[in-house]
Amino acid sequence: MDNVYKPRVVVLTGAGVSAESGLKTFRDNNGLWENHRVEDVATPEGFAADPALVYRFYNERRAQLQQPDVQPNPAHKALAKLEQALGEQFLLVTQNVDDLHERAGNQRILHMHGKLLSARCCKTGRAIVWQDDFDDTTECRCCLPGEQMRPDIVWFGEVPMHMDDIIMALAQADVFIAIGTSGQVYPAANFVAMAADSGARTIEINLEPSQQNSLFDEHIVGRAGEVLPEFVA
Ligand code: BV8
């Protein structure tokens, strides 16, 4: 992605932006983690211990995402409109692994926690589009037959993607907007402090105050799908 670090407006989204599309968040009632221990499904150790369980967890989420009634909601569409208006001065950093921002029309997106609809070769780390279900005979299709594939997801204890570009973008942002994230997962939870240190105006749009709420200049409480269309208008 060219000119990724020119943006004046950096937006960080979390699971709350996709909630109104029907995708479960992580920490709300009946969230994703309630049905699974994080250690079992979102760590390299969990994958090594029981790849079939981890494959099932991500197969479930991919199947949910590919349901016909799961579509970009007004929050996604408002962010696509914002990118249209700002062009290179806009950057969307998402913790989400769904493709709803892309389907709404955003292009300047960095998926810092990976993507549900791609897989990664365990040997080479190369990611390829992967729409099918994983199963325990999932074999590598990219290089070495017989090598295992894993979800193209950043698990706990793994380094998030695009960190250099994100740090550079935060260093020169004029505005940082966090939307639909509980601010409980690092390093994303640190982004508001990093943006503020660079002099950016910081805004939180969330259903309830996040763990980082006190660090923001401005707070807008509400559903992203209702607040964002007005905010962007
Ligand atoms: C790393 C897998 C080192 C993808 C996920 C301090 C510093 C650095 C690291 C740590 C640290 N302390 C602890 C750590 C380790 C750890 C961590 O943060 N642990 C936490 C639990 C304390 N972090 C890591 O391991 C990370 N790696 O640090 O490496 C490093 C660091 C920097 C540079 C180099 C090396 C890796 C973290 C990635 C883990 N992977 N998931 C997947 O399966 O999806 S995290 C998981 O949580 C998802 O990715 C999710 O996106 C993310 C954050 O959750 P949210 O998106 O915020 O969702 P949540 O449900 O929590 O909140 C939703 C919010 O929306 C709520 O506030 C709700 O009120 C609101 N909402 C709901 N509906 C709406 C709404 N808002 C608006 N409108 C609505 N309609």
UniProtKB/TrEMBL annotation:
<feature type="binding site">
    <location>
        <begin position="14"/>
        <end position="33"/>
    </location>
    <ligand>
        <name>NAD(+)</name>
    </ligand>
</feature>
<dbReference type="InterPro" id="IPR027546">
    <property type="entry name" value="Sirtuin_class_III"/>
</dbReference>
<feature type="binding site">
    <location>
        <position position="61"/>
    </location>
    <ligand>
        <name>substrate</name>
    </ligand>
</feature>
<dbReference type="Pfam" id="PF02146">
    <property type="entry name" value="SIR2"/>
</dbReference>
<dbReference type="GO" id="GO:0070403">
    <property type="term" value="F:NAD+ binding"/>
</dbReference>
<keyword id="KW-0808">Transferase</keyword>
<feature type="active site" description="Proton acceptor">
    <location>
        <position position="113"/>
    </location>
</feature>
<protein>
    <recommendedName>
        <fullName>NAD-dependent protein deacylase</fullName>
        <ecNumber>2.3.1.286</ecNumber>
    </recommendedName>
</protein>
<dbReference type="InterPro" id="IPR050134">
    <property type="entry name" value="NAD-dep_sirtuin_deacylases"/>
</dbReference>
<dbReference type="InterPro" id="IPR026590">
    <property type="entry name" value="Ssirtuin_cat_dom"/>
</dbReference>
<feature type="binding site">
    <location>
        <begin position="206"/>
        <end position="208"/>
    </location>
    <ligand>
        <name>NAD(+)</name>
    </ligand>
</feature>
<keyword id="KW-0963">Cytoplasm</keyword>
<feature type="binding site">
    <location>
        <position position="224"/>
    </location>
    <ligand>
        <name>NAD(+)</name>
    </ligand>
</feature>
<keyword id="KW-0520">NAD</keyword>
<comment type="function">
    <text>NAD-dependent lysine deacetylase and desuccinylase that specifically removes acetyl and succinyl groups on target proteins. Modulates the activities of several proteins which are inactive in their acylated form.</text>
</comment>
<keyword id="KW-0479">Metal-binding</keyword>
<dbReference type="GO" id="GO:0017136">
    <property type="term" value="F:histone deacetylase activity, NAD-dependent"/>
</dbReference>
<dbReference type="GO" id="GO:0036054">
    <property type="term" value="F:protein-malonyllysine demalonylase activity"/>
</dbReference>
<feature type="binding site">
    <location>
        <position position="140"/>
    </location>
    <ligand>
        <name>Zn(2+)</name>
    </ligand>
</feature>
<feature type="binding site">
    <location>
        <position position="58"/>
    </location>
    <ligand>
        <name>substrate</name>
    </ligand>
</feature>
<feature type="domain" description="Deacetylase sirtuin-type">
    <location>
        <begin position="1"/>
        <end position="233"/>
    </location>
</feature>
<dbReference type="InterPro" id="IPR003000">
    <property type="entry name" value="Sirtuin"/>
</dbReference>
<dbReference type="GO" id="GO:0005737">
    <property type="term" value="C:cytoplasm"/>
</dbReference>
<dbReference type="GO" id="GO:0008270">
    <property type="term" value="F:zinc ion binding"/>
</dbReference>
<feature type="binding site">
    <location>
        <position position="121"/>
    </location>
    <ligand>
        <name>Zn(2+)</name>
    </ligand>
</feature>
<dbReference type="InterPro" id="IPR026591">
    <property type="entry name" value="Sirtuin_cat_small_dom_sf"/>
</dbReference>
<dbReference type="GO" id="GO:0036055">
    <property type="term" value="F:protein-succinyllysine desuccinylase activity"/>
</dbReference>
<dbReference type="InterPro" id="IPR029035">
    <property type="entry name" value="DHS-like_NAD/FAD-binding_dom"/>
</dbReference>
<comment type="similarity">
    <text>Belongs to the sirtuin family. Class III subfamily.</text>
</comment>
<keyword id="KW-0862">Zinc</keyword>
<feature type="binding site">
    <location>
        <begin position="180"/>
        <end position="182"/>
    </location>
    <ligand>
        <name>NAD(+)</name>
    </ligand>
</feature>
<feature type="binding site">
    <location>
        <begin position="95"/>
        <end position="98"/>
    </location>
    <ligand>
        <name>NAD(+)</name>
    </ligand>
</feature>
